[in-house]
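Help needed: design a sequence for this.
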């Protein structure tokens, strides 16, 4: 039977790079960024026990009107190793590696990863251009009208990102929420969350092989 736990959620702020170059894949670039009030949230919708050796994560993205599903397989010999397969939705290395690295990190901390989880992703409106939505409502594109928009609007047509680091914010919030669900530890364990999120983001940018050891 599915169980809903609406209080399990995590969010991460966006950021604006004000000095420096592209930092993700070309070390040793240096830059300065500042946080914004825009936040990306991941929250749990349902959870139940899964078959031993499996961790299944379904991700609902209402703003994009998309569903994603991933299945992790845990092999215990000679040491715990995790592999992930995307079973539903368009190809998404950012989501795939969020699941893979978080499951591996949870195993390394003695967590119970054999679960079926449904998560929901919600982004503040500031992460994406709202021009199409305002124009579809017959409204002028002004700061005043933007402030009046209801939260977490579905995207209308092809929209542009606003440069607030939506993929990094999504990654961090999802890793923190999923890690909390798979372990007995709080999502305030910032070192583990940040390390896992950074490793996952590097992998998502490079889109390397979807397998890792729990000791990685």
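Sure. Designed sequence:
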């Amino acid at each position: 039977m599915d169980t809903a736990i609406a209080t399990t959620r995590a969010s991460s702020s966006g950021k604006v790079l004000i000095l420096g170059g592209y930092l993700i894949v070309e070390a040793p670039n240096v830059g300065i960024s500042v946080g914004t009030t825009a936040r990306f949230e991941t929250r749990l919708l349902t959870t139940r026990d899964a078959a031993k050796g499996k961790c299944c994560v379904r991700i609902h993205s209402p703003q994009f009107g998309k569903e994603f599903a991933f299945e992790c397989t845990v092999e215990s010999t000679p040491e715990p190793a995790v592999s992930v397969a995307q079973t539903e939705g368009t190809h998404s290395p950012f989501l795939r590696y969020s699941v893979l690295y978080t499951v591996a990190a949870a195993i390394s901390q003695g967590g119970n990863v054999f679960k079926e989880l449904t998560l929901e992703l919600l982004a503040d409106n500031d992460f994406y251009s709202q021009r199409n939505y305002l124009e579809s409502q017959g409204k002028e594109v002004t700061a005043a009208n933007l402030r009046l928009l209801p939260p977490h609007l579905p995207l209308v047509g092809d929209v542009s990102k606003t440069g607030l680091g939506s993929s990094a914010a999504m990654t961090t919030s999802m890793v923190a929420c999923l890690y909390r669900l798979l372990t007995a530890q709080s999502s305030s364990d910032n070192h583990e969350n940040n390390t896992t999120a950074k490793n996952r983001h590097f992998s998502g940018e490079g889109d390397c092989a979807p397998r890792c050891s729990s000791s990685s």
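Residues 199-211 have pLDDT under 50 and may be disordered.
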